[in-house]
Specification:
It is a single chain. The mean pLDDT is about 90. Helix content is about 35%, strand content about 25%. Strand 4, helix 2 and strand 5 form a beta-alpha-beta unit. Helix 3 crosses helix 4. The two termini are about 20 Å apart. It contains 5 helices and 7 strands; from the N terminus they run βββαβαβαβααβ. It is of the alpha/beta class. The protein has a 7-stranded mixed beta sheet with strand order 3-2-1-5-4-6-7, with helices on both faces.
């Protein structure tokens, strides 16, 4: 996997703002890349968990940690327990978020949190994705278990290699049998 770059990627990124009320939320382990003047998500590992809200244009914008939790709490109060979606191998941020939106629709419009780990989005990068998935497991495990413990009735949907993160979280949680109200393992890429 690529080494972390200098802060040239994030130096032009706007500081975390407020979430757009009612729109999906995103948690990313990718470095935000603002060198072009607009926010992109590099396929590089971020040592800092990034929080985002889908904008009205459906592109995620960085938000603060408090803004993330406040908006999630507000959405849960209005629409019910959240659904967490963890994408699989060979997914760009855009592709992962499109699938998260589809999961939200299938889930009756419940709040959705899209978990983004650094996938290269290329068939030939399977082993790189595998390494990045393993690298992201600790951060993602902490976030998804916190969401589930805070919001009873949380469902989780993992696709392909995203199931490795889910399996790790379930194996590590002492309350695994009651942690999630529903677990969906779609095309699981696990041994």
């Amino acid at each position: 996997p690529r080494p972390l770059p200098s802060n040239t990627y994030t130096v032009a990124c706007p500081a975390g703002g407020e979430a757009v009320p009612g729109l999906p939320l995103m948690v990313s382990m990718r470095i935000p890349d603002c060198r072009s003047g607009s926010l992109l998500w590099a396929d590089l590992r971020s040592p800092i968990v990034e929080y985002a809200s889908f904008g009205k244009d459906r592109y995620p914008a960085r938000i603060g940690v408090a803004a993330f939790w406040n908006e999630l709490d507000r959405q849960v109060t209005a629409k019910g327990p959240p659904i967490i979606y963890i994408h699989g191998y060979r997914n760009s941020v855009a592709a992962a978020n499109r699938r998260a939106l589809a999961v939200q629709v299938a889930g009756g419009g419940r709040p959705i949190v899209s978990i983004i780990w650094p996938s290269y989005g290329q068939t030939t990068k399977y082993f790189w994705d595998e390494a990045n998935n393993e690298w992201a497991q600790d951060q993602v495990r902490d976030i998804i278990t916190l969401i589930a413990r805070k919001h009873s009735g949380t469902a989780i949907v993992a696709h392909s290699m995203g199931n490795r993160i889910l399996v790790d979280a379930l194996a590590s949680a002492p309350d695994a049998q009651t942690l999630f109200a529903q677990v969906v393992m779609s095309s699981p890429d696990v041994d």
